[in-house]
Amino acid sequence: MAVVEPAPSFSLSPEVDEAEARAGGRGRRWRSQLGTWIPAGMIAFVLVACFLGPTLLSLPSPVGGSVLESNQPAFSPGHVLGTDPNGNDILSRLLHGGQSSLWIALAVNLLGLVVGGTLGALSGYVGGWVDTAIMRVLDVLIAFPSLVLTLAVAQALGPSMTNTIFALAFFSIPAFARLARSAVLRLREMPFMAAAQLAGTSPSRMLFKHLAPNIAPQLITFGMLGMGIVIIIEGALSFLGLGIPDPAPSWGNMVATGQLSLSATPMLVVWPSLALLVTVLAFNLLGENLRARWSGR
Amino acid sequence: MSSKRTAAFPAEDATVSEGVIVPETAGRHRPATAASPGEPLLVVEDLRVQFTRGGRKINAVNGLSYELAPGSMLAIIGESGSGKSVSSRALMGLLPPTAKISGSVRFDGRDLLGLSEREMQSLRGGDIAMVFQDPARSLNPTMKIGAQITEAVRLHSDLDKKGAQARAVELLKLVRLPAAERRFHEYPHQLSGGMRQRVMIAIALAGEPRLLIADEATTALDVTTQAQIMELLVELQQRLGMAVIMISHDLGLAASYAQDVVVMYAGRAVEYAPTKVLFANVRMPYTHALLGAIPALDREPHSLFEVTPGQPPDLSALPKGCPFRPRCSNATDQCLEMPPFTEHDPEHWFACWHPVGSGTGKHTANGEQR
Amino acid sequence: MTATATPRVPVSRDPRVSPLSRLTASPVLRLVVKRLLMAIPIMLGVTVLTFWVLSLIPGNAAQQLLGPEATPEDIALLEQQLGLDKPGVVRYFDWLQGAVTGDLGNSLVSRQPVSEILSARLPVTAELVFLAFVVSLVLAVPVALLAAHKPGGVMDRISMMISTLGLSVANYVLALLLVLVFAVSLGWLPAIGYTPLEDGLWANLRGMILPSAAIGFPLFCYYTRFLRGDLVDQMQQEEYVTTARAKGVGSWAVLIKHAFRNSSFGLITIVGLNLGALIGGTVIIEQIFALPGIGQMLLQAINTRDFVVVQAAVVIFALVAVVANLVVDLLYAVLDPRIRYGSR
Question: What is the value of ipTM here, to two decimals?
Answer without folding.
Answer: 0.74
